[in-house]
Amino acid sequence: MDDQLDIGDDKTLLLVDDDEPFLKRLAKAMEKRGFDVQTAGSVAEGKALAKARPPRFAVCDLRLEDGNGLDVVEVLRETRPDCRVVVLTGYGAIATAVAAVKIGATDYLSKPTDATDITNALLALGDALPPPPENPMSADRVRWEHIQRVYELCDRNVSETARRLNMHRRTLQRILAKRSPR
Question: Which residues, 6+ apart, have CB-to-CB distance to 99 below 8 Å?
Fold first, then answer.
């Protein structure tokens, strides 16, 4: 593939995510693709691994239980400037994407994503963008994911969620009662 980086001998990959089932699935998938994977479930653990054994590649969740994944990206940039970092988040926003890229992330992907999209982003040559995902989320799905995220952040309080989303409470209740769109 001419549009992808040759990973050569250094196939070290650091995965940082607090979603343990996702982390395990992704680690297994990336190992099958030839990467030497280390995993971390927190910012503190990610920073420690980044300092102890700076990887060539990294995939880091933006929001972790003990802090912001961009803190791990900063440590990776200090310890290994050529590290290619992909930042993942379940809550995509332009401001956080810009912040991630300014700090040194190679790319920024919204969850849900799969190992193929992540591999393409990690191995894209230079500033070339990876190909668009084969199965991107629909606009309805993105809206639904956003509403669910705000709902969870408001401790499942419908009135508070509706206020923050500038939405009528009954409209929100109808949306929450429906199944997620595809």
Answer: 70
